Amino acid sequence: MQVFEDFLKDPFVLKGIRLLIWIVFIVLCIGFLRKLAKKRIENINLRYKAQKGIEVIGYLLIISLFIISFTMESVKDYTVIIGLFTAGLTFTLQELILSVAGSFYIFFVRVYKPGDRIEINNIKGDVIDIDSIYTTIMEMGEWVSSDNYSGRIVKISNAFVFKGPIKNYSMDFPFVWDELNILVTFDSNLEMAKKIILEKASELLSDYTDKSKSRWAKMVERYYLEDAKLDPTLAIGLTDNWITVNLRYITDYKLRRITKNRLFDNIAQGISLTDGKVKLASTTLQLLKIPEMDVRVHSGH
Prior knowledge:
Mean pLDDT: 80
Number of helices: 7
Shape: elongated
Low-confidence stretches: none
Structural class: alpha+beta
């Protein structure tokens, strides 16, 4: 018992116990305030930001307690201790510090937010959560084609916002340009083919085009951008086998695959009604029969 009492009387141990009590108290307060925010704040976006703000402030308080507990008693050596402590802490926890700094950068600069579709560190997907250390993404691609979810949830350190480019598909301008190649034969009526493709594209994409024009006008005002053509456009290319009609159009970033499928279906239906004046091309292989040969062998004398 005496050894235990002496252990408890040690100033360093008392300091550690007080620090532990304060940390437990702060953690409990964080949990209580998060639950309170969840009950009281009805707006989902505001509630999410309030909960994350409470969490970050709590972590900062815990870090501050560590610094104060181990440096305030010796005022004389305060600057030396703080310098050594900060240098050691920065070297040891540089990734963690960058992640926490990255979370502030993400929230205040609005690099991206939950619901945005981004590509970061060569990983593409929809942001489903941002905490003080990690960004959580519902992954797209990999073994799955186009813009479909793979089913994997990926956690990426917030420090990556300082280490490389971030591709945001939805910030400021939630539309993307896409292309569709329609292959027609050389004996097709090219002008009729172009007319059908443009009519079907304009009919299907008119809503996207109208909405994108107002958003693009705001982009031109805000950024150093030249005005771009947002209506569907065509470009013709010739190959040894067919004529390529390249359709370039604008669509919602979340509906790229569906839009391409509907476009091709509508165009194919339009072409099928031309009574063969326009024909879709494909690679073909023709097998020729070897002609019969009459071989006669004469025996020599």
